[in-house]
């Protein structure tokens, strides 16, 4: 059974229960509301018991400041609920995780991947299916990379993990001239290594931390610089056919993720290889979208929704729509109206 099978209220009693439990687990509600939710759930599944789901206690990590990690404020609680809800919706909408999956969570040490791991650990607790999580970090042998940070963090969480060591840094520095953008080659080398490792450990899904803003930025990058309409799909089967990539944060925006990372105080590891490069095409597009969002709030979300509402007949790709066969439909009712002179 997959998550998509238990989310939609149109798909029977289990879907209703999943929605009710998600509401109970991710919102601050009064005891009377909890009782009402339980009664509503029982009405959908008869005499079967309803699981009482409770939000897990906030975890302290040895790499965070304990004085700043007390009870969540109202705004922090709302933020946490929103990220969990949106990630859960994305997982369900695209059937990202199924019963028995082994999900390899790719952890770079950045805010996005930390947030993704945090959210998936919560979903693992409340989801009506069982799936395994294993965190994987790739040590690319960049100078100054703090090798101790991620192992210490993951051990404190009790999360199974692997550190994959491969010196792609030297390869990138050798092949890319000084001052040129290294991101493209670096990401290809990293992705290839992670695909291979996922196959080795028997991972059925590979989770990446790309969010809504990444997807929209990639859409414009391909449009402006490659002449193609494509972005980052929330779910993708790799070209080798042996790996399925999922992006659980596809519905989450970067601003929320940054705020969540700040109050969680994740031990962020900066990318020293490309983080300081200026004039990156992605940064230009990011700045453009930030400016648009400032002038017209909600524009980025509208653009993202357009990626879910594609009409090939209104574009110009002959591979997606048969324009050559378009002819008048002789059986269609005429719109001609007789005008009678009175």
From TrEMBL:
Domain spans labelled tRNA(Ile)-lysidine/2-thiocytidine synthase N-terminal: 102-266
One Gene Ontology CC term in the entry: cytoplasm
Annotated EC: 2.8.1.-
UniProt KW Chloroplast keyword: no
A GO BP entry: tRNA thio-modification
Enzyme class: transferase
Keyword vocabulary terms for this entry: 4Fe-4S, ATP-binding, Cytoplasm, Iron, Iron-sulfur, Magnesium, Metal-binding, Nucleotide-binding, RNA-binding, Transferase, tRNA processing, tRNA-binding
Pfam families: ATP_bind_3 (PF01171)
Entry note: cofactor: Binds 1 [4Fe-4S] cluster per subunit. The cluster is chelated by three Cys residues, the fourth Fe has a free coordination site that may bind a sulfur atom transferred from the persulfide of IscS.
NCBIfam families recorded: PRK10696.1
Family from the record: Belongs to the TtcA family.
Protein name: tRNA-cytidine(32) 2-sulfurtransferase
Source species taxonomy: Bacteria, Pseudomonadati, Pseudomonadota, Gammaproteobacteria, Pseudomonadales
